[in-house]
Amino acid sequence: MKRRLITSLFLAVLYVGLIVPSIAFAPVFYDVLVLIFMFTASYEMMHVIEAKFQPAIKPCVYAQVVVGYVAFRVANWAGHGSWGISASFGSLIVMIVIAFIVTMFNKKYSMANVISTLFILIYPLGLLSYLLAVNYVGDAYREAGILFVFGATSLIDSMALFVGSAVKGKKLAPQISPNKTISGAIGGLLGGVLSGIIIYLIMLSGLWGMKVIMPTPLENILLYTGIGLGVSVACQSGDLIASYIKRYCAVKDYSNFLPGHGGFMDRIDGVLVAGIFVFGFFAIFKLF
User: Fold this and answer.
1) Of 101, 162, 225, 280, which is least packed with CB atoms within 10 Å of its CB?
2) Given this model, what pLDDT does residue 288 score?
């Protein structure tokens, strides 16, 4: 418990120390946080995949972290967040081609290595590109997006754990994650609604120039609670996906980077999918 608390404090300092300056001063602080996730999550996923399948081609994976970020920023400078996503996935496709070429001319690797590499380039790196794109979705939505991705998912996880532990009841998906219950999932949905209200109040405060999106309080409450519900569904789905991968590969945690918590992937599994939802929602919302 002591190690878990120390690790939780470290994570809180890491998140707040990079997210708050990003909102208040410069977006690059948020980028640093996502890059940390990209390097650590790809390392952890390669470690887990190796327990069941052939190893990924590590140089291609790490190169994609750097090349994908550079491509994203260059394209984003020329356009907006969706351009960055397109460029990032374009570089990912190029990296897949390079992985094939390396395999054809290096007997050390086989097609199985390429498949493992492809998986990791998509999950988690491809998903993390959307998390990065939240930072560039637009000034009217960026701050809310960041708060939903990190603040809402934290509250959703806490509510799911609290309600599930208190109420217990029928298991949600015992073959994937034995500890998750239907009551916990409902608690997560309530956490999503509550997080939407809290984020609305934060945006309403005008702190660091933040502002609400809709013109009336009722419209804003409906919008923010609706986003919170969507984030909850995405977050809990991401958690189950990551748990399924661990169970399939017969490992308990993605790594021991975070004593008492496992690895970074164990902490951001829900954030990965929530980032896709948040960016997609605001990207579409801006069109209307």
Assistant:
1) 101
2) 74
Half-sphere exposure of 160 (CA within 13 A, CB side): 23
From the CA atom positions of the chain, what is the Rg in Å? Answer: 19
Q: What pLDDT does residue 99 have?
A: 97
- Determine the pLDDT at residue 8: 82
259 φ/ψ sector (left φ>0, alpha ψ -120 to 50, else beta): beta
| CB distance 181 to 172 below 8 Å | yes
The pLDDT value given to residue 286:
84
- The per-residue pLDDT for range 215-225, each reduced to its tens digit, is 999 999 999 99
* CB-based burial label for 150 (10 Å; 0-12, 13-18, 19+): buried
Residue 277 tokens read as: 């939802």
Residues of the chain with pLDDT under 50: none
Distance from C-alpha of 73 to C-alpha of 83, rounded to nearest angstrom: 9
Give DSSP secondary structure letters for the chain: -HHHHHHHHHHHHHHHHHHHHHHHT-THHHHHHHHHHHHHHHHHHHHHHHTTSPPP-HHHHHHHHHHHHHHHHHHHHHS-HHHHHHHHHHHHHHHHHHHHHHHHH-TT--HHHHHHHHHHIIIIIIHHHHHHHGGGS-TTTHHHHHIIIIIIHHHHHHHHHHHHHHH--SEEETTTEEEEEHHHHHHHHHHHHHHHHHHHHHHHHTGGG---SSSSHHHHHHHHHHHHHHHHHHHHHHHHHHHHHHHHTT-S-S-SSBTTTB-HHHHHHHHHHHHHHHHHHHHHHTT-
